[in-house]
């Protein structure tokens, strides 16, 4: 799940909406899933925001990705076109500087084999306040992904590095 930054109240509400999905924590745990929350901000800024926002379930992991490596990987290997405002950078907004641009809101849910069950990325335009609004609700995303997982339907097949590889490499950086 991509969000703009710690300064964005709409991002905070969108992420906190996941805590309202009925049985989300149990279903995620039972599926062996990890909820990645990624921003183009630094790791410290991400950690501080998630603590402030109460997003601290055991299966949640915040990732600061100021170089937008994950966004570029998702574009290349998962056909998820994460918009990056101000790329190649620097991009300044709300008192924050993003050295390589600011990744816009996006969501990808994949199964254990790396098959995409659900994907969405904002396309910043004036009608959606440059990507700030018109995001799909967490309950709708989760229900769609659970149906797709049960039916083993996929929207795209992964190419290149797997999500597991990506997650493990960012976990090792965090330590």
Q: How are helices and strands ordered from N to C?
A: HHEHEHEEEEEEHH
Question: Domains counted in the coordinates: how many?
Answer: 1
Binned strand content: 15-25%
Structural class: alpha+beta
Shape: globular
**What is the number of helical segments per DSSP (H or I, 4+ residues)?**
6
CATH class annotation: Alpha Beta
Question: What CATH architecture do you see?
Answer: 3-Layer(aba) Sandwich
Strand segment count: 8
Percent in helix: 25-40%
Query: Using only CA atoms, what is the Rg?
Result: 15 Å
Question: How far is the N terminus from the C terminus?
Answer: 21 Å
Reading side by side through the largest sheet, how are the strands ordered?
A: 1-2
| Biggest sheet statistics | 2 strands, parallel
Using the coordinates shown, work out and report the CATH topology.
Answer: Glutaredoxin
Secondary structure: elements and pairs:
Layout: H1 9-16, H2 24-30, E1 35-39, H3 43-53, E2 60-64, H4 69-78, E3 84-85, E4 91-93, E5 96-98, E6 102-103, E7 106-110, E8 116-121, H5 138-151, H6 163-174
Task: Report on this structure.
The protein has 175 residues and is of the alpha+beta class. It has one domain (9-174): 3-Layer(aba) Sandwich (Glutaredoxin), CATH 3.40.30. 35% of the residues lie in helices and 18% in strands. The chain is built from six helices and eight strands. It has helices at residues 9-16, 24-30, 43-53, 69-78, 138-151, 163-174; strands at residues 35-39, 60-64, 84-85, 91-93, 96-98, 102-103, 106-110, 116-121. It has a two-stranded parallel sheet. A two-stranded antiparallel sheet has the order 3-6. It has a two-stranded antiparallel ribbon with strand order 4-5. The longest helix has 14 residues, at 138-151. The mean pLDDT is 83.
